[in-house]
Amino acid sequence: LDPTAYKPTQDGAAPIILHCWRGGLRSMSVVALLGRLGVASVAGLEGGYRAYRQAVMEQLEEWRAPQAVVLRGLTGVGKTLVLRELEKLRPGSTIDLEGAAGHRSSLLGMVGLEPVSQKAFDTRLALRLREPSLASDALVFEGESRKVGNVIIPPRIWGAMGSATNILLTAEHERRIDVLLEDYLAREQDRPQLREQLAQVERRIQPEAPLVQWFDGGEERKLVGVLLDTYYDPLYRHSEKGKAYRHTLAADDPRAAAKQIDQWLTEGSLWAQP
Fold this sequence. Notes:
This protein is α/β, with parallel strands linked by helices and 274 residues long.
């Protein structure tokens, strides 16, 4: 599980790790054969994938969370953008759940991304938690539901998020539309997948709104605005009922917002008595 356990080869290539389900003789035999053929960067996984999976789950179950901060806000305010800017300013201070899942945690969240399995999600998180640079005093998350796409946030991380200090991010409506258009339409090759998903969304939640027709007609801003006003915003406000926020912060400029959060973390003021 230790990402530093295997070093790259002299030419920079990643080492090859072979395994069986339980660490049987087949993989070890192939390792031995490749060694005799002169392939030096090959190793066998002791105990097989089953042992590796057990190590991943133990890592997630035994993790003790530091103080946590969760960035919350309506769809399109730029929570992910602020999280990424904060990671640049304060390396090791964030855990990007959507990045680990390959999903934006919404009906259209898979467009242009590669969603991963639960096992791959767990492995990415376990490796992140083992990184030497990961902060031990405070970690910042983006607000999510228990599921990110089709994967489930592990209990320890979910518990840390539930007891975290919340910061509410805000942005103007037009800015939110800009953020979503940039996120989903930045690459022309993603348009067919987005159109396909919009057809499903239209049948599911907006039968009276011709989403696909607007998309085909170049009315993307109108489409996004309707989805925000009639679906995403009401759903988010319902899910956030009862939550308390330590600060409300404008996120129209993600880097400026990240700098403010960095300052709060440095000062320790997020946990001081108001």
